[in-house]
Amino acid sequence: MWTNFNISYPISTYQVMFTLTDLDLEYHKVVYHPTMELLNTNLFCPIWSRSKVEKFIKPSGVMSEYILHSDWYRKISKTVTCIEQLAIPTMPVDVMAKWRLILYKESLVTYNEETDSSAQERELAHTVAHGMVHQVIDSAITPSWWSHLWLNEGFAALLHVEILDEIFLKWKFVDLFVVQVQQDCLHLDTDFTMKPLSYEVRTPSEIKSLFSFPIYIKAPVILLMIQHIMGKEFQDIIKNYTNTYFRKSPTPDDLWNMMQVNLDNPELGNPTMKDIMENWVRENNYPIVNVRRTELTLEISQDECINEHYQQKALQWIPITFTTWEQLDFDNTTPHHWIPPKDSTKYNISISLTNKNGWIILNLQQTGYYRVKYDNKSLNAITYYLRFLKYIDIHVLNRAQLIDDTYYFLKRGEVTYDRFLRLINYLREERD
């Protein structure tokens, strides 16, 4: 039996994949679904599976169509071509995506509306979206060396969440990402237990070590922070990046060169995006921002702490966002100020307050990869507002952040149990 393959454009050898199987797989086309009327079925991505799961594989076909027509997907995909998708019951990994071919673990892309939970439906959405976005990113751009692999993996992990958030507003995929991925990353990236995103590798064993937690969870978290630093320009930058380096091998520096940051403070100089990102990428751990207040003045500084192994943490360029009890503006997540990687109090941020009993909350929607440590007076003011006034005025991600950060400092013995218990007392009213 002969099989004919069309001629492909030059691609990296690690993008070549074909499948040989003794499974009897059938092509399943979505016959009808209400959402299909809104879509151009010429871009349909076929899904092959066993005939016994045909009924349960159809939601994955609909999901593929949604993703193909999302704004984000169209921005990162230079050419929209047919993608073959296979559901394999014995897949050793959840998803494997290469050029125009995606393999899924069957149990993750089947859904029974009568018996499966909404959590299984969300898992299906995650799996299909991650496979399709990973296929687009890796097919378009090849890292110049293994040390830069984190950028492709990070884009695939972040952008598939952004696409799902665009399609399914009610599920709040980005909010779930912050709580489930970013907060887990903060706990794992403590006391130097996690390697940096990028470091020199030469041997096969060193290259293999790259495929660990940092590349899959910290990379998208750092890119989320960059997304909010750049604001509305981020989508166009990514589109420009994928178009400019289509079928090429760029380095992270090529991406940084497409980004311009205005710190709006002559004392901080004029750092490039490469300057800002250097320590975030090449150092492990994360910074802690201290908030200390007097009567009507707030001091914000970077913690120059040493861990329990007597190792000095690398100082970072930290994007600072905040709002007050008067403003209640949690949506402006582009940096209001920057703390530079310098060990001088000259570079602390001072903010004037109009009320000695009011509060200020930093790191809006937890878009920055750092923890915030409030002094007792600041934490008491926030706690009072949550418990006795209108807790819903504070963004849900900042409510989650306050609890997670305070619990972290509780474990370090820097916050008392009494203060932590008073903070979480409002949870009896929480509905989100």
UniProtKB/TrEMBL annotation:
It comes from the Eukaryota. Residues 82-280 form the Peptidase M1 membrane alanine aminopeptidase domain. Its cofactor is Zn(2+). Gene3D superfamilies: 1.25.50.20, 2.60.40.1910, Neutral Protease Domain 2. Its main location: membrane. It comes from Ooceraea biroi (Clonal raider ant). Belongs to the peptidase M1 family. It is found in: Cell membrane. It is a lipid-anchor; GPI-anchor. GO terms for cellular component: cytoplasm; extracellular space; plasma membrane; side of membrane. One of its GO terms (molecular function) is zinc ion binding. Residues 359-432 form the ERAP1-like C-terminal domain. This is Aminopeptidase N. InterPro entries: ERAP1-like_C_dom (IPR024571), Peptidase_M1_aminopeptidases (IPR050344), Peptidase_M1_dom (IPR014782), Peptidase_M4/M1_CTD_sf (IPR027268).
